[in-house]
Write a structure and sequence with these properties.
By secondary structure, the protein is of the alpha+beta class. It has two helices and eight strands; from the N terminus they run H-H-E-E-E-E-E-E-E-E. Strands 3-2-1-5 form a four-stranded antiparallel sheet, with helices on one face.
Length: about 160
């Protein structure tokens, strides 16, 4: 195309490269906004760790009922580790706080928390709290029914 002055005129519109740059910029801003709105990595790890512990406690209870034999779930807040039924084990990220409240009679050693599930579904009960700064999740186990519940809480101070 020739412009009136006799020179070449560039066609109107955007190049593919310009469009890709805009899409990449929008995607990067979206990822940053999602991290800020969701509370970041620590909050996701906090919720994920609490859900994992609750899931493993439910599994231990189900195993106790299915087999008719007591099942142990042990948690070591200092080492940020847990051991559950059927040889399962895991860890909680070091940056998260971990606390246990429960019956001292079933502890095998100092500093370790243990919840014991019986063949009828009952348990010794207890609470595992996973926290980060002021946010926390409590995983509660009812002693009479063995029911496992998960809910938000304030971090213990």
């Amino acid at each position: 195309m020739r412009a009136r002055g006799g020179g070449m005129r560039r066609p109107a519109g955007f190049s593919l490269l310009e469009m890709l740059m805009v899409v990449a910029l929008i995607a990067a801003m979206g990822v940053l906004a999602a991290g800020v709105l969701s509370g970041g990595l620590e909050r996701r790890q906090l919720q994920s760790s609490a859900k994992e512990i609750a899931s493993q406690l439910r599994f231990a209870r189900a195993q106790a009922i299915a087999t008719g034999t007591p099942q142990r779930f042990a948690i070591d807040p200092e080492r940020h580790a847990w051991r559950g039924a059927d040889g399962r084990s895991g860890e909680v990220p070091e940056r998260l706080g971990l606390a246990f409240t429960g019956a001292r009679e079933v502890q095998s050693r100092e500093g370790e928390g243990v919840i014991l599930f019986f063949g009828d579904g009952a348990s010794t009960g207890g609470r595992v709290q996973v926290s980060w700064q002021q946010a926390a999740w409590n995983v509660d186990v009812a002693w009479l029914t063995g029911e496992v519940s998960l809910h938000r809480a304030q971090a213990a101070r």
